[in-house]
Design brief:
The structure holds 2 protein chains of 2 kinds. By secondary structure, chain A is mainly α. Chain A has helices at 2-40, 63-70, 72-84, 87-102, 109-131, 138-157, 159-166, 168-171, 174-184, 191-210, 214-241, 247-267, 271-294, 307-332, 334-338, 353-369, 372-382, 386-394, 399-410, 412-428, 431-438, 449-459, 463-493. Helix content of chain B is 48%, strand content 11%. Classes of the chains: A mainly alpha, B alpha/beta.
Chain lengths: 494, 500
């Protein structure tokens, strides 16, 4: 009896501790969440439904959701959101790269001298550039000195110093870093363009000399993109035949690989492309169909086997394809670029419609280098069994082989977690950057869905519609995460 | 652990009680009202003056101290909206979208008390009426206003031996002088650092030029956008030419570089102007607050924006709107009386905090400013004069919400970034604003009913126009067309009073 009483007392005490948090969760998370589901199906509009205007709130069914598809902004801002997510794999790679570097020991006589010489070379190079009248700005020198100091202190303090320095971006206030980047991106007098100016000046004569071959270079670059498609499709088919790739994985891979040739029809303004790309795609898909339906596989496997290969390797090919198309367009536009009085024009970064999104991706890349992901990878690296490396060494594995066959598979769980969180963050993201750096411009090029939800809800007062957008965003995240969970998890365990 | 919990709970409860007891309303035995405005040092002085105004007008306790207290609340606009619709906003709030708040039922109809107590619409600028009222009923009174025009740094023009811009000029005259200025000011410089004006990539620069050609973004009843005209495309092309071809105005990239170190309101425009990087800037007389702070003093003159035949400028207002749930309507009424009083208007005139809400009351003081501030010359008289004669507010349909994006500005940006041609950009303005109107009508049956009624009026207006008949003034809600048709002799003045 006494024990029961004591137990009850303990439970009550525990509940008392939990109660503030529980009440906070219910009041500020759960209740708004439930309310927003309800709002998404109503015509809740602050103009009609507020403390002063208690007009009945009407249930409108799926009208708010249906309206999304006729809203010219929704698709565009969804596209912007996805475009900015292109930076995620690069950010993850940067986190991994920095984690691997930071897991190395920097102290020691050889490294100390190595880094000191590197620092001296950098500073010496800057002095020579300055004497030559190139990049002679205080900011350039300051940056060079800063890098030099970092190398030097790192040589003495070792990886602890670097780990602290690399983690800076994460614990610096977001708004402060956005303002800093805004200054870095200043087109005329920002440090980035100041550093690029001499490079672009030096490249101008090179670009001028390439002018007669501009069309040829562009054609070769597009030819390379087509060759990449052929090679990758061939590789995919080989893997499928060998049972190294399931049907679902093969289809997904084909879709990913087909994106650059298909989109080049929209992005490239050359008559032959309008013929060549459809022919290439038709051959590729017919070949694929012939394999799938007309050939017998040597080894069978489950439908989604090696789906990670389709996501990662084909994803890299996709990015490479896009890069080749971009370079081809640069080559075609070379006469316009070189024709400017100041030579090759420097990027206008966030002041330019076409550069604004890549600028934000670069900034995200910088933030990813020293993010929580880096810490997760550092923790993951410390958990890789040393005997695996020893076994690899005995087998005579190179550095790259050690990474690809030991480190990377051992970090699969961490990578999976990071990718899931990064994709969720990517779909939700962009609000602070849009608010602080660009106001969603130029011409809406950096407006993401989260910024759109904010403006619809709290600027125009259409709470029902804003809730519908928010829930659609949630649905999107849910589907993507489920996909990741289903297939990514399998990849992790493979 | 339990003891720690009890201790923390006690601390939190004590802190809550302390915060409650030390709040503004508990520190005093008189009613307290709050005024949501910006955190400007001048607001605190204006609050002190309000307390003196209460004393002067006998709103006092037995000991002679004011029987009311005003405190400043510096919440953001978004917070104000949320607080207002939730029934817990400040008693008076600065507002740039009076019609929105009035439509939400958040404001109070003050028409009768305003006329009775000396702060009716007839005491302020006609150009502001439509921004202070809804359907002929007054909901707010101005704190101040502005007629943005070109403030000219006379010293810069003298330096290059160029004529000082006239008060009125055409786009061609503007362009010609601008080209001469940038050529002289940037001679020998690798990078262009000096411009004739700051960025013209804005709707506030485009609108007066468009209106000077007799066109507006909306029709007479503001039920539809009619922006898709060759005139608007011409304005876009003109702005583009000045920016990218003549280089008399900076591009977005130039601005981003100049503003990289900018802080404070107005960004770097003011300091760039004083340094001679801009020959002129677009501002109202509130800009003088900043100019007078700088050590380097310049001589000013004032010019209208370049335009064609029909002279016009935009007028803006920062209005004080009484909140529907105030517990002290008497103090709020006193505050609005204070805004129309000589004391307040004299302060606005002296300290250049924009246009005085009640200009008639300080006519004499205005004339003395040129003696007190010789470098500012007749700029004060000019701006206030334009506010009373040619200034017209931005046409803003009551069907559009406060947060509606600036599609005119956005389309200029689309055109400047090569995303659309000038005519496509004009077409886009019309399409987007009409879409916004349709969406607003769909969301609110009362709005739709009102819109349909106005559409019927628009049909009659169109018939009258086609028949060459004069249009009755009460049919028109777009402030631009009232002025324009009046000047063109196309208006039937069937009414003489009432807010518009």
């Amino acid at each position: 009896m006494k024990s029961n009483k004591r137990q009850l007392k303990n439970v009550c005490t525990g509940m008392a501790f939990l109660l503030p948090n529980l009440l906070g969760f219910l009041a500020f998370t759960m209740l708004p969440l439930v309310m927003s589901i309800y709002m998404a199906f109503t015509d809740w509009n602050l103009e009609m439904h507020n403390y002063f205007r208690a007009e009945p709130i009407r249930f409108v069914g799926f009208r708010n959701f249906a309206q999304l598809f006729s809203d010219p902004d929704f698709g565009r801002y969804l596209g912007n959101t996805f475009f900015l997510m292109i930076g995620i794999p690069f950010g993850v790679a940067a986190s991994l790269g920095s984690a691997i570097l930071l897991s190395l020991e920097f102290r020691g006589t050889r490294r100390f001298w190595g880094l000191s010489i590197l620092t001296a070379l950098m500073l010496g190079g800057c002095v020579i550039l300055t004497l030559a009248g190139m990049g002679a700005t205080a900011m350039t020198m300051l940056m060079a000195s800063l890098f030099g100091s970092v190398f030097f202190i790192g040589s003495i303090g070792g990886r602890t110093v670097y780990r602290t320095l690399f983690y800076f971006p994460h614990f610096t206030s977001g708004v402060a870093t956005f303002i800093l980047w805004k200054k870095l991106y200043a087109p005329e007098n920002g440090p980035i363009n100041n550093a690029l100016r001499p490079v672009f000046s030096a490249l101008t004569p090179v670009a001028e000399s390439l002018l007669p071959f501009a069309d040829g270079i562009a054609t070769v670059l597009l030819g390379l993109m087509m060759a990449l498609y052929v090679v990758m499709v061939f590789r995919k088919m080989r893997r499928w035949e060998d049972g190294e790739c399931g049907h679902v994985s093969a289809v997904l891979g084909m879709v990913v690989l087909s994106a650059p040739p298909a989109l080049s029809l929209l992005w490239v303004d050359a008559p032959w492309v309008r013929v060549a790309m459809p022919v290439l795609l038709a051959i590729g898909w017919l070949w694929f169909a012939w394999h799938i339906f007309g050939m017998k596989r040597i080894y069978n496997c489950v439908l989604d086997y090696k789906i990670g290969d389709s996501t990662i390797v084909d994803g890299v090919a996709l990015v490479a394809g896009f890069a080749l198309i971009g370079l081809a367009n640069v080559a075609w536009n070379l006469p316009d670029l070189v024709g400017q009085p100041e030579g090759l024009p420097l990027p206008k970064w966030i002041a330019d419609y076409y550069w604004a999104k890549p600028s934000i991706i670069f900034m995200g890349f910088w933030a990813a280098v020293g993010s929580n992901n880096m810490l997760l990878y550092l923790a993951g690296l410390s958990g890789v069994p040393q005997d695996l490396y020893e076994a690899a060494d005995i087998d005579g594995a190179s550095r790259w082989q050690r990474f690809w066959h030991v480190t990377w598979p051992q970090l699969a769980n961490v990578t999976f977690f990071i990718m899931v969180m990064a994709i969720i963050g990517g779909i939700q993201g962009g609000f602070e950057m849009a608010r602080v750096m660009t106001n969603g411009g130029p011409a809406g090029s950096t407006t993401t869905l989260s910024y759109y939800i904010y403006t619809q809800g709290f600027a125009t007062g259409r709470l029902g519609y804003a809730s519908a957008v928010a829930w659609l965003l949630f649905l999107l995240m849910f589907v993507v995460t489920m996909f990741n969970w289903k297939f990514g998890n399998r990849y992790t365990n493979e | 652990m339990k003891k720690i919990f009890i201790f923390l709970l006690t601390v939190l409860i004590t802190a809550s009680i302390y915060t409650y007891l030390t709040g503004a309303s508990k520190r005093t035995d008189v009613p307290v009202i709050s005024w949501k405005s910006d955190a400007n040092p001048q607001r605190y002085e204006q609050i002190d003056m309000y307390h003196k105004f209460l004393q002067k007008n006998g709103v006092v306790k037995e000991d002679g101290s004011p029987r009311g207290q005003l405190v400043l609340d510096t919440a953001s606009n978004q917070s104000t909206l949320i607080q207002a619709v939730s029934g817990m906003a400040g008693d008076i709030f600065d507002c740039f979208a009076v019609t929105d708040y009035a439509a939400m039922g958040v404001g109070v109809d003050i028409t009768e008390q305003a006329n009775r107590n000396g702060y009716g619409l007839n005491t302020t600028y006609e150009g502001m009426w439509s921004q202070l009222s809804l359907a002929g009923r007054q909901y707010a009174y101005p704190c101040n206003g502005a007629v943005p025009a070109l403030w000219v740094n006379v010293d810069t023009f003298k330096k290059y031996d160029l004529p000082v811009p006239p008060q009125e000029w055409t786009p061609e005259e503007f362009e010609e002088l601008g080209k001469r200025f940038v050529k002289l000011a940037n001679a020998g410089s690798r990078r262009q650092l000096c411009f004739f004006v700051p960025s013209v990539e804005s709707s506030s620069f485009a609108m007066p030029i468009l209106r000077s050609m007799g066109k507006d973004v909306y029709n007479e009843t503001m039920t539809r956008s009619v922006a898709n005209t060759p005139e608007l495309a011409k304005v876009f092309e003109l702005l583009y030419k000045w920016t990218y071809e003549d280089r008399i105005a900076p591009t977005a990239a130039d601005v981003a570089s100049m503003n990289a170190d900018a802080t404070g309101y107005g960004g770097a425009n003011f300091s760039n102007f004083l340094q001679g990087r801009y020959a002129m800037i677009v501002t109202g007389r509130y800009g003088l607050i900043r100019f007078r702070e700088f050590e380097r003093q310049v001589t000013f003159s004032l010019s209208q924006l370049p335009m064609y035949d029909f002279k016009n400028l935009l007028i803006t207002v920062r209005a004080a709107m009484p909140y529907g749930r105030t517990k002290s309507p008497e103090l709020v009424d006193m505050f609005l009386r204070y805004l129309a009083s000589y004391e307040y208007n004299k302060y606005i005139i002296d300290f250049a905090d924009g246009l005085p809400p009640n200009p008639h009351i300080v006519k004499e003081d205005l004339l003395q400013l040129k003696d007190k501030y010789p470098r500012e010359g007749i700029t004060h008289e000019l701006e206030i004069g334009w506010a009373q004669t040619i200034a017209i507010p931005e046409s803003r349909p009551r069907y559009l919400k406060a947060g509606t994006p600036n599609w005119l500005g956005n389309s200029i940006s689309e055109f400047f970034n090569g995303r659309k041609s000038a005519q496509e950009a004009a077409e886009y303005v019309e399409y987007r604003y009409n879409l916004e109107i349709d969406t607003a009508c769909e969301a609110n049956p009362a709005t739709r009913a009102d819109w349909e009624e106005q559409m019927a009026v628009q049909t009659r207006i169109d018939e009258y126009k086609a028949a060459g008949k004069k249009i009755p003034v009460e049919w028109i809600s777009n402030p631009f067309y009232i002025r324009y048709y009046r000047k063109m002799g196309m208006l039937a003045e069937t009414t003489t009073a009432g807010a518009r």
